[in-house]
Design goal:
The complex is a heterodimer of chains A (564) and B (199).
Chain A: H1 4-12, H2 22-31, E1 53-59, H3 65-74, E2 79-82, H4 90-93, E3 110-113, H5 150-154, H6 168-178, H7 205-217, E4 222-223, E5 233-235, E6 239-241, H8 266-272, E7 276-278, E8 281-288, E9 294-301, E10 304-315, H9 318-328, E11 343-346, E12 349-353, E13 368-370, E14 385-390, H10 394-405, H11 410-416, E15 422-429, E16 438-445, E17 451-456, H12 461-480, E18 484-489, E19 492-496, E20 522-524, H13 539-563
Parallel strand pairs in A: 1-2, 1-10, 2-7, 3-17, 10-20
Antiparallel strand pairs in A: 4-13, 5-6, 8-9, 9-10, 11-19, 12-15, 12-18, 13-14, 14-15, 16-17
Chain B: H1 10-15, H2 22-32, H3 44-57, H4 71-79, E1 85-87, H5 93-112, H6 121-133, H7 146-162, H8 165-170
The chains are: A alpha/beta (564), B mainly alpha (199).
The complex binds flavin-adenine dinucleotide and iron/sulfur cluster.
Chain lengths: 564, 199
């Protein structure tokens, strides 16, 4: 097909001026104000052009998209969420089986480059109504104030454009709304206006052994804050949610509704207030008028191409798909920062075998935490990390073991027979932005004909030192707990950065309110706007930013209305 | 500590009870009842080679009917499905498997002057050791990073094996009994539905 090249390029970049293809010109004209309807011949597959315009379209329904969707709907705005993945019913559709649950993951192929290529799929990113929160472990620690000020404290990286006081009210609101289980008082993070609404969940085998060993070594631990309910919980606007049954399968989806994923919390709240959520809707294009304002998005749903017009767009597709959409549509690129400063948490794990019968499938996988390593005294690196006990499902464990330990043959089967006796600890640590770590569009195309994203990641000296420090400490802990046959697995988890927030459009994509510097009606809210990686799990902070972005947007709208 | 053994028959027995949700039972029962897979993507020779390789990577001398670990790969490649990522240094999965299996045969010929399937088990293991160590001879490895290929293939076969209910039974996993929830979650504390190790 001779036009294929042009067609592809045109579909991806609908406002590029050099498009010569008559078919595309027809599509473009239709996007504009032209009154001459294209003929059947000129446009064999017209994108229906509904006249209906909504106040806001939200792309993605994960930790970044769902809270703001609810907030905007509750403010009375007409909002539509477009979600690439399916909508499922956890109670009937979620098997307690890793393979059967693979639909929860973003399985479109990403290319992983660099010296430490990051694993995606089940290591990283989800899809479906609820996004990655459908399969997160639900550890929900707060960031600490100094996490936002690496540059101030160490002279490297960049600071967040505000301090923790901006996030604290949102953390509190989220903890109360989601029903987070955790200890009060919590030993580490700074002042908080309220304790956790529910008591901590019970500790499982890995958590208990880690707790004892850390006590021997003088490391303080605590049951973790976890967004799973330790008791039945009434959620305003939604109703009762059931308590966690300790079934340990959070990473393949909770079929109890106990885990605060977005599909059982913010999304029903949003729908109760009139928001519309369209599942299986994969956005490919973002259209603008000649002034550069976004006018509509185009998405594919069940083989149809659909256009939705909107006054404002909230892009919440996660730290890979958000920059990919921006690059595909040549949007918000003036800072030159889209795709740059890709970060991933060092997630070093240490596994050991215990004589005790541990059964790592029981209890929430996210049980015990220590933030004593937040700013270690003997650190030879910038920032810090936290320690967490981990539960593990058999297929995930076996696969990781095969990659990391490289056992095969009879040795592999013999080792796996110890599954019920293994336990792990892992860290999540800060990661510095580095110019060699970035996302770009590859030449290779996916099934839709869109370029695949390629992500370059190489652990730099700081990450390597942090890994070495934490590996030694975790080996000491497991040795004190009586473990044998220790092995470590160097991994990088969580995609962070790629469309960062800052004070100036010279070095950031969005301003402190989450609005793109160079597109007046585009907001971005997900992992991609983090200016630095933080030394804690990201989801609670993404949700806090989401509510804050919605409030900033609503306040700006109110000001505009006042000026009318 | 020698690795524990667990009694057989427990997972099939569990699936017959109401301790398992319908969705979970459907997924596991389908795997237990799966008919023999006929290759769709690989041609018969390559498929036989792949099965021989898999039999060394995940040996099952204890099973009268080995769990099929390669059928799933053939099916996935035929459907063009991915698991969300690929090493940039690797060609697309279909290409990688074709080149990699061909490379294993080239290494077998170079080291033992016979195709892989014709070698003794210990010779086959020597070939695979060279592949795992990244030292395998063969021109295909000019186009395919040998160590990465070994890692990817091993991980996929391992996942296919441990996703099978009988392999889960082998390691004493009963997380699939998901209806009642778990109360005995401390070390050395079992629920009645958790099989005890055979001493
Ligand atoms: C196994 C695992 C365990 C984790 N555990 C924890 C934990 O314990 N604590 C924690 O804080 N974090 C955890 N995380 C990370 C956490 O889940 C993510 O950081 C967080 O959910 C990311 O939020 P997000 O809004 O940026 O993206 P997502 O939640 O991934 O949402 C993005 C959504 O956008 C949709 N989308 C993408 N592109 C398009 C498009 N073109 N059109 C339409 N829709 C699109 C996607 O389908 C997806 O639903 C874990 C992650 C994994 C993989
Ligand atoms: S452990 Fe609790 S929160 Fe996690 S999946 Fe099971 S019931 Fe849900």
């Amino acid at each position: 097909m001779p036009d294929e090249e042009v067609l592809e390029e045109g579909v991806l970049n609908p406002i590029k001026t050099e498009i010569q293809d008559p078919l595309l010109q027809a599509i473009l004209e239709e996007n504009g104000t032209s009154l001459t309807a294209p003929t059947e011949l000129e446009q064999p597959a017209p994108v229906p052009n509904p006249t209906e315009e909504v106040d806001c379209v939200v792309i993605g329904t994960g930790a970044g998209g769902a809270p703001l969707l609810a907030r905007l709907a509750m403010a009375g705005l007409k909002v539509v969420a477009l979600e690439a993945g399916p909508r499922r019913n956890p109670i009937t559709d979620y098997a307690t089986d890793e393979k059967a649950q693979s639909f929860l993951f973003w399985n479109d192929e990403r290319l992983s480059a660099g010296k430490n290529p990051v694993a995606f799929g089940n290591n990283n990113s989800g899809t479906g109504v609820g996004g990655s929160t459908l399969h997160y472990t639900a550890y929900t620690p707060r960031a600490q104030d100094d996490d936002l000020h690496l540059h101030r404290d160490f002279g490297v990286g960049v600071d967040w454009p505000f301090g923790i006081d901006e996030l604290e009210p949102y953390y509190t609101e989220l903890e109360q709304f989601l029903g987070i289980s955790g200890p009060t008082p919590y030993p580490w993070s700074g002042p908080r206006s309220k304790g956790y609404p529910l008591a901590p969940l019970p500790l499982n085998g890995a958590a208990l052994l880690m707790q004892q060993a850390c006590a021997q070594l003088g490391i303080q631990t605590s049951p973790a804050a976890n967004a799973a309910l330790s008791a039945r919980y009434y959620q305003a606007g939604i109703g009762w949610r059931e308590a966690c049954t300790n079934r340990g399968f959070c990473q393949a989806g909770c079929n109890v509704g106990a885990k605060a994923s977005m599909d059982v919390t913010f999304l029903p709240l949003a729908e109760a207030h009139g928001a519309e959520i369209r599942a299986d809707a994969f956005v490919t294009e973002i259209e603008r008028d000649e002034k550069g304002r976004i006018t509509a998005v185009v998405y594919e749903q069940h083989g149809q191409t659909v256009r939705q017009r909107c006054r404002h767009l909230f892009l919440c597709a996660g730290a890979v798909e958000t920059p990919r959409l921006l690059l595909l549509n040549e949007l918000a690129l003036t800072s030159g920062q889209v795709g740059k400063h890709f970060m991933a948490h060092p997630g070093m794990q240490v596994w050991g075998t215990f004589s005790e019968d541990m059964r790592p499938y029981k209890g929430i996988p996210g049980g015990l935490i220590s933030e004593d390593t937040h700013r270690p005294k003997d650190a030879d690196f910038v920032g810090g990390y936290l320690l967490q006990s981990i539960g593990v499902m058999p297929v995930t464990f076996a696969s990781q073991m095969a990659r990391g330990r490289k056992l095969w043959g009879q040795q592999l089967r013999d080792y796996m027979r110890n599954y019920n006796h293994v336990s792990g600890i892992n860290i999540l640590g800060d990661c510095l932005p580095h110019e060699s770590n970035f996302l770009e569009l590859a030449d290779e195309k996916d099934a839709r004909g869109l370029p695949k994203p390629r992500l370059h990641f190489t652990a730099q000296e700081n990450e390597q030192r942090m890994n070495a420090h934490s590996e030694k400490l975790m080996r000491d802990i497991w040795t004190a707990a009586g473990a044998t046959d220790l092995w470590s697995f160097e991994r990088y988890a969580h995609v962070i950065g790629t469309a960062r927030m800052g004070l100036s459009g010279d070095d950031a994509v969005v301003n402190p309110d989450g609005r793109a510097f160079d597109v007046p009606n585009l907001y971005i809210c997900d992992n991609s706007v983090f200016p630095s990686a933080l030394s804690v799990n990201p989801a609670l902070t993404i949700m806090a930013l989401s509510l804050r972005t919605a409030d900033k947007f609503l306040a700006a709208q109110a000001r505009l209305d006042g000026n009318n | 500590m020698s690795a524990p053994l667990y009694p057989s028959g427990t997972v099939r027995a569990l699936l017959a009870t109401d301790l398992v949700t319908d969705a979970t039972r459907a997924a596991l029962q389908a795997r237990l009842d799966a008919p023999v897979h006929e290759p769709v993507f690989f041609e018969p020779h390559t498929y036989a080679l792949f099965q021989t390789v898999a039999a060394r990577l995940i040996p099952q001398p204890d099973r009268a009917e080995p769990i099929d670990v390669v059928g799933g790969v053939d099916k996935r490649l035929a459907e063009g499905k991915a698991d969300g990522w690929r090493y940039d240094a690797m060609p697309p999965d279909r290409e990688a498997y074709r080149l990699g299996l061909g490379g294993i045969n080239q290494a077998a010929e170079a080291l033992f002057q016979h195709p892989f399937v014709a070698l003794s088990e210990s010779q086959q293991d020597a070939v695979l050791e060279a592949v795992a160590a990244g030292t395998a001879p063969g021109e295909n490895w000019q186009q395919l990073p040998v160590g990465r290929f070994f890692e990817e293939m091993l991980a996929e076969l391992t996942e296919n094996y441990y996703a099978h209910p009988l392999a889960q039974e082998e390691i004493g996993y009963v997380g699939m009994a998901d209806v009642p929830g778990w109360t005995h979650i401390q070390p050395n504390s079992l629920e009645p539905r958790e099989p005890e190790e055979v001493k």
